Amino acid sequence: MTMTLEPTARPSAGATVLPAITRTIDARGSYCPGPLMELIRSIRESSVGDVIAVWSTDRGSKIDIPKWVEKAGHRLVALEAREGYDEIVVEKAR
Amino acid sequence: MSDLGTATSQRVVILGGGVGGTIVANQLARKVGRGPGVEITIVDQTGQHVYQPGFMYIAFGRERAAHLTRPEQSLLDTRVKVVVGEVIRVDETERAVQLADGRQLGYDYLVLATGSRIVPEEIPHFVEEAHHFYTAEAAERLRRALDAFRGGKIVIGIAGMPYKCPPAPLEVSFLIEAELRQRGLRDKSEVHFCSPIGRAFTIETVSDMATPIFDEKGIELHTFFNVEAIDPERRVVQSLEGEELPYDLLILVPPHRGAQFLIDSGLAPAPGGWLPTDRATLQVGGRPNVYALGDATDLPLSKAGSTAHFEAPVVAERIAAALLGREPRAKEANYTGRVMCFFEIGDGRGTLLRFDYNNPPHPPKPNRIWHLGKLAFNKAYWLTVPKGRF
Known about the structure:
The complex is a heterodimer of chains A (94) and B (390). In chain A, strands 1-2-3-5-4 form a five-stranded mixed beta sheet, covered by helices on one side. The model of chain A is unreliable at 1-15 (pLDDT under 50). With 94 residues, chain A is of the alpha+beta class. Chain A is 23% helix and 28% strand. In chain B, the strands form seven sheets. A five-stranded parallel beta sheet of chain B has the order 5-2-1-9-20, covered by helices on one side. In chain B, strand 15 (227-231) and strand 16 (236-239) form a beta hairpin. Chain B is globular. At the A-B interface, strand 1, helix 1 and helix 2 of A face loops of B.
């Protein structure tokens, strides 16, 4: 399920304040097409500056997603282990 | 404007006569029985049920379009009525569906099984330069292009996300490579597969199975290549990630969208048009009387008939329970993410993908049995799946 959340200030991580999340993709339990494919879909439908959070239970996501983000020229904002899943936050940069 | 429903009955209106809509209608009819109090109506644009997985086989000369279509009414329980027409809007305040010809259908429960539509025109030059296999006509055109092909570079890629049947472009790559070998064209040809992600396929276990097949077949795998644009003058295809590949024959999965009227009615956000759907109950946006299934949802699952097939019993059970004034049966009332599909490897071999939200797939080693299983399923489909008995 994709949830569009009201942009709100994120809790600070140390001294860094994370940007407001534009959209959260709950890709927990998604094997096909998978969390990275869901992120690519969302990036295509977003505007530059949008911040997308992906929730994934796929252990490969924390490696695959940052690799794609770098290759595609976007910005990895955060990668955090939550309870039973990873949250990967990406900003559309171009 | 006429209202096709009657006010005394509970009215279930199902939009879309594909796999999901048809199974929901048949299962619901069986669950609510012959009582007079429930009307079940399917609205479909053509009134024809199409077995879409057969399109890919048309491109390889193994299927004909005429075999893939049957009248929707012939697949339905006699208690289900079919209305042929184009839906232009859902009016949630009036609880009514409006058709392009002015007719209006009132509903108490609404099922959105409207599938996905392809929009190749969204990519400039797609229509003139690229082939695909997402309609019978396009698959026939691809067949003719393959017949005319005498060697060169074939590029297979994905030009939009999400798309129907995630394994299909891999299957097409494998089947084309096998055909080129059989026709003695392999030495004069290159086959390139562009994967949108960092490996051959999204599911790691499947990717691990498929990667050696790419090596064995000499298909060049390009990772992180999401097709973005086509340059027809230079005959190159360009990626979202900034790379390009030349082609002689270009085969692309076109962009897909949900039904436009879902966006126009405020049910699904633009530009995708995918319905915000609860992953367990399949209710749309928290509405207690509106459900979605199949390609129309925004669930992070394969857009495939199999997904709709396993979602349909949940929708049928929940609506039947509401109509009959009972609690939904716990075992049937929540979707578990179950999907099952065959995967062609070429050379008469195949495998099977089975998974749900909690269990990733562990495909068996490709063999002849699963290839034959897929062919048998293609034939048995009409007798089993739409009836909701399989």
